[in-house]
Amino acid sequence: MTSDAPAAFSVRPFRPEDETALYRICLETGDSGADATELYADPLLLGHLYAAPYGRFEPELAFILEDAVSVCGYVVGARDTAAFNTRLEREWWPDLRARYPLSHADAPPHTPDERLIAQIHTGFPDDTGLWQAYPSHLHIDLLPRAQGAGNGRRLIGTLLGALRAANSPGVHLGVGARNERAIGFYRRLGFQELARTPGAVTFGMKLR
Asked: What is the pTM of this model?
């Protein structure tokens, strides 16, 4: 924990037993920062995509925020997005695709669960142009009680330090276009907007 950190919060490396907390927090912040529990019939789906595989495959780039109560936030990342996606295809998606078969392969997904299951079957899209300059990526989530106290900045700073130590030249992230609070947060940290669609904004930062 840095010297200016509030005494109530501490940052530490991820441990395997934190995986349950990754799933929980990913769901409880999964609606553009708000609780997504009521949106999904299966509470694990969001974590299957955006949290748990980072702890499994790149634990050295996963950091936990906790207070006296429990884990209340995390930041996770991948040093090389292309290599990370290749590993997911080999070691993560196959079991999940068997667990979550596409019920109507020719029909477009309609429910939030169906959309995430479709993503499991397609994997994450390639973006070679982005990855050349910003090969690393990250996800960060904080429960409401941990927000507004500098914890997000501290988590991001911890991960950026780890990525620089791993000699990454740049990092990118995506945020929902309607999550104005997060968009402002990334701008204040020095991330630059790289692309925008109706549903999402992509930010990047050079690390060297």
From this structure: 0.91
